[in-house]
Design brief:
homodimer, alpha+beta, Nucleoside Triphosphate Pyrophosphohydrolase, Arc Repressor Mutant, subunit A, six-stranded mixed sheet, 8 helices, globular, DNA-binding
Amino acid sequence: MVTRIPAPALRAELIAVLVAVTDGEPQVLTIRDGSLLPSGPFASADRSLQASLRAWVEQQTGHPLGYVEQLYTFADRDRSADDTQRRVISISYLGLTRQALAAGGHAASWRSWYRYFPWEDWRDGAPAMIGKLIAPRLRAWAAAAGTPALKRERLQRVRVTFGCTDVPWNEDMVLQRYELLFEAGLVPEAAGAPGTGLPGAHMLYDHRRILATGIARLRAKIKYRPVVFELMPESFTLLQLQRAVEALAGQLLHKQNFRRLIDSQDLVEETGELATETGGRPAKLFRFRQQVLIERAIAGSKLPLARSA
Amino acid sequence: MVTRIPAPALRAELIAVLVAVTDGEPQVLTIRDGSLLPSGPFASADRSLQASLRAWVEQQTGHPLGYVEQLYTFADRDRSADDTQRRVISISYLGLTRQALAAGGHAASWRSWYRYFPWEDWRDGAPAMIGKLIAPRLRAWAAAAGTPALKRERLQRVRVTFGCTDVPWNEDMVLQRYELLFEAGLVPEAAGAPGTGLPGAHMLYDHRRILATGIARLRAKIKYRPVVFELMPESFTLLQLQRAVEALAGQLLHKQNFRRLIDSQDLVEETGELATETGGRPAKLFRFRQQVLIERAIAGSKLPLARSA
DNA sequence: TCATTAATGCTCAGAACGAGCATATCGAGG
DNA sequence: CCTCGATATGCTCGTTCTGAGCATTAATGA
């Protein structure tokens, strides 16, 4: 069972989905004009994977990473083909950071993640493109299935992932939706499908899939772990906090319920100061109670979803 | 940013946490007299990681893997030290299988996972060892802290992870508990801590930690995904299903509420037959409605926890 | 027949949640 | 000064979810 045959040589690379929220937009760090996620070799020196990622990101972007979480590991044939098809193990991470700075070094830049997944942004209601473009094409793809059984299954999947009819929209299924589009040949990344004019920028290799994985993970996580605060400045108003959550979830929340939930969980405390920026009545400023991270490793910053504002 | 420096050679290994439930006991596949999880090299051939794992497990154990999910990837110095400290990337997986068979090949054997984590089994109430052995030692460790602040933080962590006093027991924190014991030097795996007589079998390297990760993941998962069924035979009674969930969660459930939940979710359908084995009134047999996996990728087989039977 | 073991049906109270109404406070513009 | 626009904040209501317990039914075996 423990076969200690020396396996063929591999190399490992780290791929990062770095997220920030600025001005109510969820941003992701990209390179090469937005066509790639930042990635680097695993510096075998003596660091762990995570430390290696941290060091490398901080060196590149110039500011510290808050929360870091492993996303997924996969192994493909080496894409750079520098060798004779050496295997590369890609280990992807999700990282949250407080501010989208100028992004130090080279050609790195922050982009709204809805640039890559415009259909995921429901903050202004259901995006028209779903009903007008995506759904028809997906149905056409389903209709083109070989057998009736396969056709039914495809339709089912379209219904479940893209909702719209009887099934409600589920903001967590980012990856499933992307994979469905991929399978249906509706994204340029799919082999033999030269970009069928669907809105949304694509990426090279499978980087858009990795981004989808990161978004999905983050959207799921904010519901039961207080990770949003990793993306907030030191002090903030409850509305800013709500806007950040909404940006990530791609959905608007019911303001009063959001507040009820936040303070029923003792997640924040008043700083005593007020913010007097935006038109209306000044809002109290809050800060995250770091304590809760120790008090309960569970926490749970669930977010109350609503249909409209 | 995309530095294409050929990284030093590595090797990759797959480590599996294979779980089955037999006779109401959660079992995990081990080798070497229970001291290791099964692991194998990543066959670089042309398979993906997951396919590689599947093939290798099925070849070794002789029966198919149901559900497979990646756990975690980490990189340590090569433990086997076959080379000059070549790095090894360990990719761990959680796999669910239907029956704990004789476990084909070599010295593989199934063991109850509570053999390694006896304090995690609360089906007969709070294990006495927690109050009598674990808690006192952890408190002693906390008391030995350098500064008062550190001491308070340690006590806090003990309270949160092991519950008992005001904080209720949380069955998901398997990993946190193990790591706490590790940090406190109460498990033989910790360097310089030659087994301080705590109950629970240990494993070599970090395999017990990996097992803890797998258990934690599975305990969390059964609450929102219908994965229990991967562990059940074709048809089963509701009580058998409940016992399986209880075995995994390490907690007893309220029978009526469990049933209410199960059928409110349309997870199962009657086969029409009855089971007439155990003493009492014969129970209806059910089977899992495979349909739900397509109907809603969400599903959610939450489990209602209760204090007692 | 009766004790035992389960399966099953039903109720109830409290918590959680979605949704909406109403009021309070600010700045800016007439 | 007063009103409007914009936001903060307080409170209520009905529904659903959930934990917990009571009661009844249906089989087996001594």
